[in-house]
TrEMBL record, chain B:
UniProt lineage: Bacteria, Pseudomonadati, Pseudomonadota, Alphaproteobacteria, Hyphomicrobiales
Keyword Secreted among UniProt keywords: no
Source organism of this protein record: Kaistia dalseonensis
Listed name of the protein: Alpha-D-ribose 1-methylphosphonate 5-phosphate C-P lyase
Keywords: 4Fe-4S, Iron, Iron-sulfur, Lyase, Metal-binding, S-adenosyl-L-methionine
Family stated for the protein in its record: Belongs to the PhnJ family.
């Protein structure tokens, strides 16, 4: 790894804003994220977290601001200037998106193997045996038994579906993964296992992750840095431990104190 | 019969559709030929037959047919099923054109489900009736999205479908409407023809036109265009093979239909292309179930005093 490249941010947002007509989605969001870094975006529902994630993943067009991304070839591009073809290619090679509801992120009528293999086929893999080997490998890595490769996600439990979603996203070795409340629909013990898995994979693969969550415990466990949002604006940022242990803003203090002590 | 006389006798314009409509369809056809495999939307008309009976094919045929054309219509390879007979009659009546069942005499062949076994020539046009023109439809229900996928040549999904086939059945189990890539660009549904016929589309000297009436799409494969069936490197595209020759004409390596003979498991396999089979039998080929030469065939040449 060349040091000078890693000194540059992977993704940098400047004054990102989104208005839905007169209504504010989010405004003035600026931050940098580096390779291997996990950034948590927390806040109550309606605080603009999902809008922000939509903007960052270029699914929503912004009202204002810019978003620069360092591509695999080292060139930094403004994401909103990419052509549709380039954008899609980026989305399924260099990026991943783990949805809150696995049904939005998976093809429910396609087998687990097909779900994992889809990205490979989309970038031109045409050898059935090799696609299948890679899919088997990834299923094992996310703790899904290899013999379930031909089962439909419909027959999977909630936790397995989330893990399948992760395998499907990581199979092309992305550098940046967006996660939208990946654990919120799971019960606590399954949550813990999934978080463990995510933490392991993130460390192993050196992923940059932007994770949106309303669960401060998830943020504390996974993230290096944290961004607190309220009414569409970022009100506090900093190292996760620092912000959670010593919140500066009144709202953050409220948020932290509202978590039940475990 | 010339066009004016025909109009007088039937009350319809030549080939049923009015000239402006035919012009609109021809424009769509020209565009389709210019962009091989691309689905061109057109203002499909109500036809005097139900959707599913080939209203798309009929409109394409009506737009290209002339008084000198000879029309053949087949349904599942056969010239004498209801669908084929009615469409042939339709054009015999509204256009006054000559119709035929012989592949070699036809200039326009409208078809549902088959491409004739006899190799088509540059003087012929084959018109396919298409129920569902969109190859991505069952994988991606949104039309806006499928159009985008075509525009970006983003066809990974097609392979997901084939992957699922192999995962479930051990081989690619899609046997008809097998997706093809046309001229290295667009992925196209060849209409519900068996995949047996896919290789016939490749570099065919005949113009191939596809009309989907209900879905309002026309697409085309111009003559001598590369048509490749999608596959995997380790599961290459293969056509169906049959263990037995045709029971009536004894031919091998053509597409056969199974005909149930009795309720005790008796069955025979015969050519699906009825004209091809008849032609071979007329040439004296015999299959195991064709039995003795029918009396009328025996006696007919005898009258001429020729040996058979």
């Amino acid at each position: 790894m060349s040091a000078h490249l890693n000194d540059l941010p992977l993704l940098s947002a400047r004054n990102l804003g989104k208005h839905y007509g007169a209504r504010l989605g989010c405004a003035d969001v600026s931050f940098d994220i580096y390779e291997g870094e996990v950034l948590a975006v927390v806040g109550e529902s309606g605080s603009g977290k999902s809008t922000l994630l939509g903007l960052l993943s270029t699914e929503l067009p912004p009202t204002s601001g810019s978003l620069d991304y360092r591509m695999r070839d080292g060139e930094t591009r403004n994401l909103f200037d990419l052509s549709e073809a380039e954008r899609r290619f980026l989305l399924r090679t260099d990026w991943g998106f783990v949805r809150q509801d696995a049904r939005d992120g998976l093809r429910m009528s396609v087998s687990a193997g097909g779900n994992v293999g889809e990205r490979l086929m989309a970038v031109g893999a045409r050898h059935y045996g090799r696609i299948r080997d890679t899919a088997t490998d990834w299923l094992t890595r996310v703790e899904i038994e290899a013999e379930r490769i031909d089962d439909l996600p419909k027959s999977f439990s909630g936790g397995m579906r989330q893990r399948l979603q992760i395998a499907r996203n990581l199979v092309t070795h992305p550098r940046l993964v967006f996660m939208d409340e990946p654990t919120s629909s799971l019960d606590v013990s399954v949550q813990a296992r999934l978080l463990d898995l995510i933490r392991g994979l993130v460390a192993e693969l050196g992923l940059a992750v932007i994770i949106v969550t309303h669960d401060l415990a998830v943020a504390r466990l996974l993230s290096h840095r944290i961004m607190v949002m309220r009414h569409g604006r970022v009100i506090e940022t900093g190292l996760t431990d620092q912000v959670l242990d010593d919140p500066r803003e009144a709202y953050t203090q409220l948020l932290v104190s509202s978590v039940l002590a475990a | 019969m010339n066009a004016a006389a025909n109009a007088q006798s039937t009350g319809y314009n030549f080939a049923y559709l009015d000239e402006q409509t035919k012009r609109m369809i021809r424009r769509a056809i020209l565009k389709a030929i210019a962009i091989p495999g691309y689905q061109v939307p057109f203002a499909s008309r109500e036809m005097p037959m139900p959707y599913g009976w080939g209203t798309g094919g009929v409109q394409v045929t009506a737009a290209i047919i002339g008084p000198d054309d000879v029309l053949k219509v087949i349904d599942q390879g056969s010239d004498d099923t209801t669908n084929a007979v009615s469409i042939r009659k339709f054009f015999a009546k509204t256009a006054g054109v000559e119709t035929t069942t012989e592949t070699k005499r036809a200039t326009i062949i409208q078809t549902r489900h088959r491409i004739p076994e006899r190799e088509l020539t540059a003087k012929q046009t084959i018109v396919f009736q298409v129920p569902i023109p969109e190859p991505l439809r069952f994988l991606e229900p949104r039309e806006t999205e499928t159009r985008k996928l075509h525009a970006l040549a983003d066809y990974g999904l097609m392979h997901v479908k084939l992957y699922e086939d192999i995962a479930r059945h051990g081989h690619i189990a899609t046997t008809y409407d097998y997706p093809v890539e046309v001229a290295g660009r667009y992925v196209m549904n060849p209409s519900p023809t068996p995949k047996f016929d896919n290789p016939k589309m490749d570099m065919s000297p005949a113009l191939q036109l596809f009309g989907a009436g209900r879905e309002k799409r026309i697409y085309a494969v111009p003559p001598f265009t590369k048509v490749r069936s999608l596959d995997f490197e380790d599961h290459p595209f293969k056509v169906q093979t049959f263990d037995t020759p045709c029971a009536l004409c004894g031919v091998e390596n053509v597409y056969l239909d199974e005909v149930v003979l009795d309720d005790r498991g008796g069955r025979m396999f015969v050519c699906s292309d009825s004209d091809f089979c008849e032609e071979r039998r007329a040439e004296g080929h015999r299959g195991e179930l064709s039995g003795e030469e029918p009396a009328f065939l025996k006696t007919a040449p005898a009258v001429e005093g020729e040996a058979t």
